[in-house]
Amino acid sequence: MSKAITGKVYLVGAGPGDPGLITVKGLDLIAQADCIIYDYLANEALLSHARPNAEKIYVGKQGGRHSMSQEEINRLLVEKGRYLKVVRLKGGDPFVFGRGGEEAEVLKEAGIPFEVVPGVTSAVAAPAYAGIPLSHRDFTASIAFVTGHEREDRQDSKVNWKALAELKGTLAFFMGVKNLPYIVDRLIHYGAPKDTPVAVIRWGTTPRQKSVTGTLGDIVERVKEAGITPPAIIVVGSVVTLRDRLNWFETRPLFGKRIIITRTRTQASELRRELEALGADCIEFPTIEIIDPPSWDAVDEACKNLESYDWVIFTSVNGVDRFFDRLLYHGLDGRALGKCRIAAIGPATARRLQNYFIRADVIPDGYRAEELIKALPEEQIKRAKVLIPRALVARDLLPETLKDMGAHVDVVPVYQTVRASGERARETAEMLKEGSIDFITFTSSSTVTNFVSIMEPWGGVSLLRDVKVASIGPITTETAHSLGIKVTITAREYTIRGLVEAITEFFTARV
C-alpha cells in the first residue's frame, strides 16, 4: 500500500529578472519551501530567502543546453511533491509561455496537490523598463503575446501571421531573437509596413538590460550589429516610439556598471541595494565572515556589571548588534545601559543603536577613532570606567589614548572576522582578468587583506592592476596601499552611503 501524499507543489512566477518584482506570496512560499526547483531565468538572488536547509535544484536551460529535460522535470516534481512543500520557481509567469500548464497537468494526473502563483511576465516588464508602454490610448487599443520560438520550416504553425500583421496594436514576442529574421519576414509578407517601429530588449529589468530599436525594415541588422542574444523580448508597434521620452531605467547613473562587493554575505545587502537602485550590476564576493569571539567570558562579565561603567563606546555596526544580542541572551535590554553615556564612531553606528532605542550622546564629525577621541569630553573621561565592545582584532589607538587620558578601559570582543571560503574565486578572477569589472569595493581593511589572500592562487594583487578600486575610508585605503593596491576613490564620508556617493560622482563627472 503506497504512502499517503503529504506534499504540495507551488508553481511560482519568479518575475522577469529584477528580484524585487516577485509577488509577496511567491516570496513567502520560497521562505517556507522544503525544496526549490528553479529555472535559468529565475534570479538566484531569490534563493537567499530560502531556509538554510532547503533543497535547491537547478533545472534550467541556457542557449539550448538543457540541465534537465521537461520530462525529467515533470518526474522530479511528482517525486518531490509527494512528501515535500515544493516551490517550482519559473521565470516570468508560469502560465505565459512557461510550460506551467504542462507541469500542472502532470501533477494533477499524479494526484499531487498544487497551486499557481502568477508572476510579472517579461512581456510586460521588459518593455516597461525600456520606457515602452504596451498600451497607450493615443497609439493602440490591443496587445498580442506571441511565441517567437516556432521553427521557420514548421508546416503546422499555430501563429496566425496574417491576423498579427493586420492588427493595429502592439505585438510582444517571447523567445524570438534567433527567429527574428523569420518573424520580420512573416509580418512584412502579410502586409505590415516596413517602417513599423520595433524594439528588442535583452535581459529586461536587470542591470544587464540592453535595448535596440529600429523598424521592421532594419531591426535584423541592428540587432546583429548590437550582438543581442537570448533571452530577449521583441516589441512591434507604434508604442516603441515612446521610448525616447519614457526611458527611465537605462538612464540611471550607474546603469550597467559591474561592481564587486567584498562584504560579508549578510552585510552586502545594504550596499547592493543602494548600488542596484542606481543601476549597477552587483557581484557578491564575500571575503570575510563574522563569527563569535573565542570566548564570551569578558562580555558576560561586562553585561553583569554594566551599572559600574560611565561610558560605553561602539566602534561599528557589528559591535552594536553583537553586544545587544549578548545582552538579550542574559535577559537584559537597553535599560541596562541607563546609567551609561553612549558614544558611536559614526552616523551608521548611531543609527543602528536607535534600533535598540538607544540614542548616542557623542557622535564625532569624522568617522574614525581620532575624531571620536576629540569629540569625547576630556573632563568626563578622566577616571571614568569605559567599556568598548568591538572586534577581536582592531586598532588599539582608541583604548590606549583613553587610558593615557586617565580612563579605566575594558575592551571586550563581541565578534571576530575570519577569511571567507572564497567560493567562486576562479570565476571572479576571470572577470577581473577579462576587464568586465568596473569597480571593486572594500569596506574595511580585512576585506582588502582577505581578498588578496583568497585570490593568491589566481594572481592576488595583480588582478587589480587595471581595475578601479573604491575604499570606504582612509584606514582601508592605507591597508590597500600597503599591499600594493592603487585606490581610485576614497569615500569622504566613511559609510556605505558615502561609498555609494563617491562611486556615483566618479561616473557622473565623466559624462
TrEMBL record:
<keyword id="KW-0808">Transferase</keyword>
<dbReference type="GO" id="GO:0009236">
    <property type="term" value="P:cobalamin biosynthetic process"/>
</dbReference>
<comment type="similarity">
    <text>Belongs to the precorrin methyltransferase family.</text>
</comment>
<dbReference type="GO" id="GO:0019354">
    <property type="term" value="P:siroheme biosynthetic process"/>
</dbReference>
<dbReference type="GO" id="GO:0032259">
    <property type="term" value="P:methylation"/>
</dbReference>
<comment type="pathway">
    <text>Cofactor biosynthesis; adenosylcobalamin biosynthesis; precorrin-2 from uroporphyrinogen III: step 1/1.</text>
</comment>
<feature type="domain" description="Tetrapyrrole biosynthesis uroporphyrinogen III synthase">
    <location>
        <begin position="270"/>
        <end position="501"/>
    </location>
</feature>
<dbReference type="Pfam" id="PF02602">
    <property type="entry name" value="HEM4"/>
</dbReference>
<dbReference type="InterPro" id="IPR003754">
    <property type="entry name" value="4pyrrol_synth_uPrphyn_synth"/>
</dbReference>
<dbReference type="InterPro" id="IPR050161">
    <property type="entry name" value="Siro_Cobalamin_biosynth"/>
</dbReference>
<dbReference type="InterPro" id="IPR014777">
    <property type="entry name" value="4pyrrole_Mease_sub1"/>
</dbReference>
<dbReference type="GO" id="GO:0004851">
    <property type="term" value="F:uroporphyrin-III C-methyltransferase activity"/>
</dbReference>
<keyword id="KW-0949">S-adenosyl-L-methionine</keyword>
<dbReference type="InterPro" id="IPR035996">
    <property type="entry name" value="4pyrrol_Methylase_sf"/>
</dbReference>
<dbReference type="InterPro" id="IPR036108">
    <property type="entry name" value="4pyrrol_syn_uPrphyn_synt_sf"/>
</dbReference>
<dbReference type="GO" id="GO:0004852">
    <property type="term" value="F:uroporphyrinogen-III synthase activity"/>
</dbReference>
<dbReference type="Pfam" id="PF00590">
    <property type="entry name" value="TP_methylase"/>
</dbReference>
<keyword id="KW-0169">Cobalamin biosynthesis</keyword>
<feature type="domain" description="Tetrapyrrole methylase">
    <location>
        <begin position="8"/>
        <end position="219"/>
    </location>
</feature>
<dbReference type="InterPro" id="IPR014776">
    <property type="entry name" value="4pyrrole_Mease_sub2"/>
</dbReference>
<keyword id="KW-0627">Porphyrin biosynthesis</keyword>
<dbReference type="InterPro" id="IPR003043">
    <property type="entry name" value="Uropor_MeTrfase_CS"/>
</dbReference>
<dbReference type="InterPro" id="IPR000878">
    <property type="entry name" value="4pyrrol_Mease"/>
</dbReference>
<protein>
    <recommendedName>
        <fullName>uroporphyrinogen-III C-methyltransferase</fullName>
        <ecNumber>2.1.1.107</ecNumber>
    </recommendedName>
</protein>
<comment type="pathway">
    <text>Porphyrin-containing compound metabolism; siroheme biosynthesis; precorrin-2 from uroporphyrinogen III: step 1/1.</text>
</comment>
<keyword id="KW-0489">Methyltransferase</keyword>
<dbReference type="InterPro" id="IPR006366">
    <property type="entry name" value="CobA/CysG_C"/>
</dbReference>
